[in-house]
Design a protein that fits this description.
Shape: globular
Strand order of the largest sheet: 3-2-1-4-5-6-7
CATH class: Alpha Beta
CATH topology: Rossmann fold
Distance between the termini: 33 Å
Largest sheet: 7 strands, parallel
Radius of gyration: 17 Å
Number of domains: 1
CATH superfamily: NAD(P)-binding Rossmann-like Domain
Oligomer: single chain
Strand content: 15-25%
């Protein structure tokens, strides 16, 4: 049974792996045996040390995924990969009556548009080579709910859930698994403002049955599962990892 989760010899391309959820996923995949290609705007030095401690190799590719411009270069520099994790994402907070077009476009471009076109570019390499692969999208609780003061984030993450299903419909027969993880409230840069707001933080914790904010390493197990042979018959699933938030 343990062999089902073994990622030895696999290469995982993880976007936004320098901190937070991406780091937790990248390190979990490395601990299961995968080498990591980390793509992002800043150097993933801390992640590289953690991957090395797991006995695996990390290759860093510098790219701003706020647009599709670097995608072809990223895929070329990464070389053949077995797993793609679309984790890179941003958030903008403002009342919907005041939300700007610039903030809308920035979030949609990073969270949804780039995720699609990077998925497309990687999947093309797999189909051209007559092989399969695993794509893991990082969705959100706002793939299910609307949230407050984050209209573009909610739209992008709801769109990412729909995209996961749409790509699964087309690519399952080609041996490509497309699934998503939907994290709940985690201790990341994106939630720093929420955690600093004593009232809002208390309200959030009161709804989480587990009674705590998630930690990046809490995503490692489900990421390994979705990247491994254990999930070969899973297509188009959106897996909540939320401490029970949706159960309330």
């Amino acid at each position: 049974m343990s062999g089902l989760f073994d990622l030895s010899g696999r290469i995982a391309l993880v976007t936004g792996a320098n901190t937070g959820l991406g780091q937790g996923i990248a390190v979990g995949l490395a601990q299961a045996g995968a080498d990591i290609v980390a793509v992002g705007r800043s150097a993933p030095d801390e992640t590289a040390k953690m991957v090395a401690a797991a006995g695996r190799k990390l290759t860093a590719i510098s790219a701003d995924l706020g647009s599709t411009e670097p995608i072809a270069r990223v895929v070329a520099e990464a070389g053949p990969v077995d797993i793609l994790v679309n984790n890179a994402g941003i958030i903008r907070r403002a009342d919907s009556l005041d939300f700007t077009e610039a903030d809308w476009d920035a979030v949609m471009d990073t969270n949804l548009k780039t995720a699609f076109f990077l998925s497309q570019a990687v999947a093309r390499t797999w189909v051209d080579a007559n092989r399969g692969g695993k794509i893991i999208q990082v969705a959100s609780m706002l793939s299910f709910q609307g949230g407050l003061r984050v209209p573009s984030y909610a739209a992008s993450k709801s769109g990412l859930a729909g995209l996961t299903k749409a790509l699964a419909n087309e690519w399952a027969g080609k041996g490509v698994n497309v699934n998503a993880i939907a994290p709940g409230y985690f201790t990341t840069n994106n939630t720093e403002g929420l955690r600093a707001d004593e009232t809002r933080s208390r309200q959030i914790l009161e709804r989480i049955p587990a009674g705590r904010w998630g930690l990046p390493e809490d995503l490692a197990g489900v990421a390994v599962f979705l990247a491994s042979r254990a999930s070969d018959y899973m297509h188009g699933a959106i897996v909540p990892v939320d401490g029970g938030w949706l159960a309330r």
